[in-house]
Design brief:
Elements: E1 2-4, H1 14-22, H2 27-40, E2 64-72, E3 81-91, E4 96-102, E5 107-108, E6 117-118, H3 121-139, E7 145-150, H4 151-160, E8 164-168, E9 172-174, E10 184-186, E11 189-193, H5 195-203, H6 211-230, H7 239-248, E12 250-252, H8 256-261, E13 273-276, E14 279-284, E15 287-292, H9 294-307
Parallel strand pairs: 2-7, 4-13
Antiparallel strand pairs: 1-13, 2-3, 3-4, 5-6, 7-12, 8-11, 9-10, 14-15
InterPro entries: LytR/CpsA/Psr_CW_biosynth, LytR_CpsA_psr
Keywords: Membrane, Signal-anchor, Transmembrane, Transmembrane helix
Family: Belongs to the LytR/CpsA/Psr (LCP) family.
Length: 314
């Protein structure tokens, strides 16, 4: 059910900020992080406490959970589809992180909707509030914090750090950022991708024989390479530009103090344990869905609850 991954794609949010600013202890970077925190902070309508918590948690002392979302905001009339969703749990005593990659096409109940729908539609229907509530109801696990990052930031940040090196598993083509089909072509083998190419690389799934799971592998590969580049001493001069891109394309409900309190976890991020939900892929009326296996859902939910030291069974 679980497997070890070095870096998880949508930790581009808090993970990126903390690894750079707090983990490296660079004063000037930390100063800019404070500005980003003030501008990007967007509290949930529910308030600070999850409905599944009796009290408000404090990241400095308590185990917490964070929902990371990578957003596709090409459709301006919507809040943006969550093209990538990861629920991460942080255990303070152990200093460990566990993370669940949630398939974007998972067909689940969404609060106040008459029928099940793809989980990535929750954010489009009701923003971060509905996305958080949907994940909480699905797993019966509290979601204390969220981080949402627009894919525009993904393109810009990769360009800031001069691209990423990947090993393309097979030749394929994918649409560009403007939606032009087949505009970006990939050949099998090692190559360096700019931001727009990297976005196409991590988005493609229908041409991958392993579907969404293959896409998640490519997402993890890109973020591993980006993490290595951002941690290099030569990258320090590029941080200001990177933070500027995040500031315009990011929202979360963390305070600056909350982010600083996550610093102890940075040394263990490469060892974090990750999970994937098992299930069945299918087409219905021309729409692709992923039906989650109930036993897999229960097992993963219990693992995350245990990591949060919540003594309960789904």
């Amino acid at each position: 059910m679980g497997q070890r991954k070095r870096v998880l794609y949508t930790l581009i949010g808090v993970g990126f900020l903390v690894l750079l600013a707090v983990g490296m202890g660079v004063y000037n970077v930390t100063f800019h992080l404070n500005d980003v925190t003030e501008n990007a902070n967007e509290p949930l309508q529910r308030g600070e406490a999850s409905a599944k918590r009796e009290i408000v948690v404090e990241p400095e002392m308590d185990n917490i959970s964070v929902l990371f979302m990578g957003l596709d905001n090409r459709y301006s009339e919507l809040n943006g589809l969550s093209d990538a969703m990861v629920l991460a749990t942080f255990n303070r005593e152990e200093g460990t992180v566990k993370a669940l990659s949630i398939p974007r096409d998972a067909r689940v109940p969404i609060p106040d909707r008459r029928q099940k729908d793809k989980i990535n539609h929750a954010h489009a229907f009701g923003g971060a509030d509905l996305a958080v509530e949907t994940v909480e109801d699905l797993l019966d696990v509290p979601v204390d914090y969220y981080v949402s990052v627009n894919f525009d930031a993904f393109i810009d940040i990769i360009d800031v750090f001069d691209g990423v090196d990947v090993d393309v598993p097979f030749a394929f083509s994918e649409q560009d950022a403007s939606g032009s089909l087949g505009a970006i072509e990939f050949q099998e083998g090692n190559q360096t991708l700019d931001g727009e190419q990297a976005l196409a690389y991590v988005r493609m799934r229908y041409q991958d024989p392993t579907g969404d799971f293959g896409r998640m592998e490519r997402q993890q590969e890109v973020m591993e390479q980006l993490a290595d580049k951002t941690m290099a001493l030569s990258a320090i001069g590029k941080y200001h530009h990177a933070f500027h891109q995040l500031e315009d394309n990011m929202n979360f409900n963390f305070s600056f103090g909350d982010l600083v309190s996550l610093q102890p976890y940075t040394s263990n991020l490469k060892e974090m344990e990750t999970y994937q939900l098992e299930g069945t892929e299918r087409w219905e009326n021309g729409i692709f869905y992923f039906d989650i296996d109930d036993e897999s859902l229960t097992d993963v939910a219990n693992e995350l609850c245990e990591h949060l030291a919540l003594d309960k069974e789904k």
